[in-house]
Give the backbone structure.
Amino acid sequence: MKPLNTKFPKNFLWGGATAANQVEGAWDVDGKGLSVADAYSFDENLPKERWSDQWLMMTYEQLEEAQNPASKQYYPKRHGVDFYHHYKEDIALFAEMGFKCYRMSIAWTRIFPKGDELEPNEAGLAFYDRVFDELHKYGIEPVVTISHYEMPLHLATEYGGWVNRKLVDFYVRYATAVLSRYKDKVKYWMTFNEINSLNHHPYTSLGVVEENHPHLEQAKYQGAHHQFVASALATRICKDLNPAAQMGCMISYQLLVPYSCDPDDVQATVEKQRHALFFSDVQARGYYPAYTARMLAEKNVVLETQPEDEQVMRENPVDYVSFSYYMSSAVSAHPEKLEGAVGNMLTGGIKNPYLSASEWGWQVDPKGLRTALNQLYDRYQKPLFISENGLGAIDTVQEGDIIEDDYRISYLNDHIVQIKEAIKDGVDVFGYTSWGCIDIVSASTSQVSKRYGFIYVDQDDMGGGSKRRIKKKSFDWYKNVIATNGDQLA
């Protein structure tokens, strides 16, 4: 019997997380190409409720404008918060907080600018050498996502994205380049960020433009299959290069609960949860679960596969399961009769009357994280890593560079308490990285003012500002959490 564990493991990986497309900037430096993220514009004159529209749907007109050198649009993710030129300063601040790890991504377009080149871009590879060396200087373990919402735009416009089988070869070539180059510098990898989110934003995840698409569900699941094969191949390459390395999958997990005890609500929750966990089911187990046949049939999806796909997937499941957790979502079989949770962009869902919400309508449910950890560990019996969790909020800089973000401290504290409870339950969770540990460009709204970090960046939504880094009150709070290994929580 496994003994009761009441504390975080001694080697627990505390840290923070960002994505290259939201933090780096330097979009036209050292040979980098345009990514799908670089096509997102931002118009501060639009109503706030429309800021996330483009993230959820991209049009051909917008893509054409994004590729126009004379465009007057502002593209925030091309600029990030200039980590590319501030990485030494930023990593030093991470080290001051005591980070044990830093979850980051490699920009595919720094390594293969268009995605279909035969040889990688040395300048891009050299940049990440410098980043990894700087992390190791402070004893910080890099946790690296190979593809995090930043596939080359050229692969979307010229090949149709992941629905095209050729993308498997392009991804494997890219993965081979980075896995080979950094095999002695990176121990923890993830193949795709929030792979299940392709259901909700196919352009971002798959490079598939849904405008006038003849059969979008077919494109989504065909693209998913190609990503499953690519992930399995990358896992095999990783293990061949360094057997001690760990490859994980990563999903967005919004805990789903029935709105009521109506049997229809319960069944609707089961079905919606299967749609969310289908992706980690395949990657963690190495095969399609039994419910796949009916799920795809009801979507009128017929997958095109190669004879070797099944064996490749079965022989190369991931080592651990990683997930983001921001909120839970209530499910009803009759959502039209109830008030929706407007902030739950990925799953929609019904407003839970027992929960509060952030300024962006994201319902806050710390106890749901404990439930999610137990559900995932019971389901997979593989180590878990919480790769994203955080609160987006408007921060105010007071005189003397004081930023009182007690709301963020409260949110994170309450969630970390529940991780500790899950550890007591017997869950094997080995790391936690707070999302946007330094202020970044928001994935969904392309704002900087929707801030998550322990470190404030003096930059506005249109890129103005000094980019000066300022410690928030949460900086010292998190420093103490790490120093005490989670023993001093409220």
